[in-house]
From TrEMBL:
Primary subcellular site in the record, as a coarse category: membrane
GO cellular component: plasma membrane
Protein origin, superkingdom: Bacteria
Name this polypeptide is given: Amino acid carrier protein
InterPro entries listed in its UniProt record: Na/Ala_symport
Organism listed in the record: Anaerococcus prevotii ACS-065-V-Col13
This protein's UniProt keywords: Cell membrane, Membrane, Symport, Transmembrane, Transmembrane helix, Transport
Protein family per UniProt: Belongs to the alanine or glycine:cation symporter (AGCS) (TC 2.A.25) family.
Length: 461
């Protein structure tokens, strides 16, 4: 079931759904790429304003990136190269470029349909824009239900297991001790809610991303004699009729497309619907302004982080070794020219997995609250999630991972359907922002679905 859902049906749905959003937005992301960069990373200091009801735009994107940049950014890329050849990276880039618009649309809708909760804080996400925006309340509940299953599996079990295994590899620390350390650290971060999560994310995410990028660049520099050949191989293999990984003639292109598109889509979670829950809490004056951070989130996770992994592996030449795969291929590639390179991989895996676990707990709380409207049940979920993290750390409930993968796919389906339904609203939001931009104006930081954006969703055509 999981393999089928995450095969061609899901890949093509997300990819062509993204292309439709690109077309309906009049290619806005690509026409305004440098403007987007100038308004996001070009103004980081001015994007750190927060208040009691929200977190800063930078904290929001850091929280989203914490949940997006995970073990898949390291292991998933090596799997794509293993099965799809170096040409899969070309298709990964193409998918990531499309996904910049998909993620921007998700974030725009999350901000435009957000509400103020009982504690006076902004809340939003796919549950709200599927229900209020696309007028599909049943699909919204389906999304929330499957997201809880996926979050307990992907966010708790998988990430904590990656952490404990990496710690054991580095220090020999027993899995049960690692599990106890993980749950204590998680509790310290999660007990403060979205404000503490945002404050934690804005400090750790830039550090971990920079650590991995600089470490990768150092390895690539040591293997620089093969860098030009690596880029040539990525492009030529993307259109090769014969697979370089041993497939039959004619299979190379399809394998590269399948694995490259999959990695380009899933490495940034565009279309999955998780990250918009963090962005909805941002202190922003307009949905499109926060949406620009969504586009840059994809750029960082797929174009930057995943490309670093790919270039290290391809320049090492070890991708052709049939005895290496997944994490072992990545570790071997990092260690070929620098004996301590495997520590870059292990430390990065620990950081990436821990921050993912933190963010996904928040996503689970939002889904639980949407379904139950109970703060007590939502608070109880946090402790259930931490308990699942311990089980994952000691290797328990591994059978649930396939269930989590299936739930991930089933939560993406109602999300992408709603994005396509609301494509015209996306362009209406863009036009509204462009009007403000042309007149050097700002929106209002207190705007929500009820006091501003409801009229935008009345008609889709």
């Amino acid at each position: 079931m999981s393999d089928f859902l995450w095969g061609y049906p899901m890949i093509t749905s997300l990819f062509f759904g993204g292309i439709y959003l690109v077309y309906k937005s009049r290619f806005w992301v690509y026409k305004n790429f440098f403007y987007i960069f100038s308004q996001t990373f070009g103004k980081i200091s001015s994007n750190k304003d927060t208040n009691e009801s929200s977190i800063s735009p930078f904290q929001a994107v850091s929280t989203a990136l914490a949940g997006t940049i995970g073990a898949g950014s390291i292991i998933g890329v090596s799997t794509a190269i293993e099965f799809g050849g170096p040409g899969s990276i070309f298709w990964m880039w193409l998918a990531a470029i499309v996904c910049m618009t998909t993620k921007m649309a998700e974030v725009c809708f999350a901000v435009a349909t957000r509400r103020v909760d009982l504690d006076g804080k902004f809340v939003g996400g796919p549950m709200y824009y599927i229900s209020e925006g696309a007028k599909k309340p049943i699909l919204a509940k389906v999304f929330a239900g499957f997201s809880i299953i996926a979050i307990l599996g992907t966010g708790a079990l998988v990430q904590s297991n990656s952490i404990s295994e990496s710690v054991k590899d580095l220090s020999g620390l027993p899995l049960n001790i690692s599990g106890l350390v993980i749950i204590v650290l998680l509790f310290l971060v999660l007990v403060g809610g979205i404000q503490r999560i945002g404050a934690f994310a804005e400090k750790i995410v830039p550090f971990m991303a920079l650590f991995y990028v600089l470490g990768s660049l150092f390895i690539i520099f040591l293997q620089r004699n093969h860098l030009a050949d690596a880029f040539k191989l990525i492009v030529s293999d993307a259109f090769s009729s014969k697979s370089l990984v041993g497939g039959a003639s004619g299979s190379g292109v399809m394998l590269g497309v399948r694995w490259g598109l999959a990695r380009g889509i899933f490495s940034n979670e565009a279309g999955l619907g998780t990250a918009p829950m963090a962005h909805a809490s941002s202190n922003t004056d307009h949905p499109v302004r926060q949406g620009m951070w969504g586009a840059m989130e994809v750029f960082i996770s797929s174009i930057v982080i995943c490309t670093m992994t790919a270039l290290v592996i391809i320049t090492s030449g070890l991708w052709q070794d049939p005895n290496l795969s997944g994490a072992s291929l990545t570790a071997a590639a990092f260690s070929k020219s620098f004996p301590f390179g495997r520590y870059i991989v292990s430390v990065s895996l620990i950081l990436f997995a821990f921050t993912t676990a933190v963010s996904w707990c928040y996503y689970g709380e939002r889904s639980i609250f949407y379904l139950t409207k109970s703060r007590k049940i939502t608070a109880a979920f946090k402790y259930l999630y931490i308990g699942f993290c311990y089980l994952g750390a000691i290797g328990g409930l591994k059978f649930a991972w396939n269930v989590a993968d299936t739930a991930n796919a089933l939560m993406a389906i109602p999300n992408i359907i709603s994005l396509v339904i609301m494509a015209n609203v996306f362009y209406k939001l863009i036009r509204d922002f462009d009007f403000l931009r042309e007149n050097n104006g700002l929106g209002d930081y207190s705007w929500t679905f009820d006091n501003k954006w409801k009229d935008f969703f009345k008609k889709y055509i």
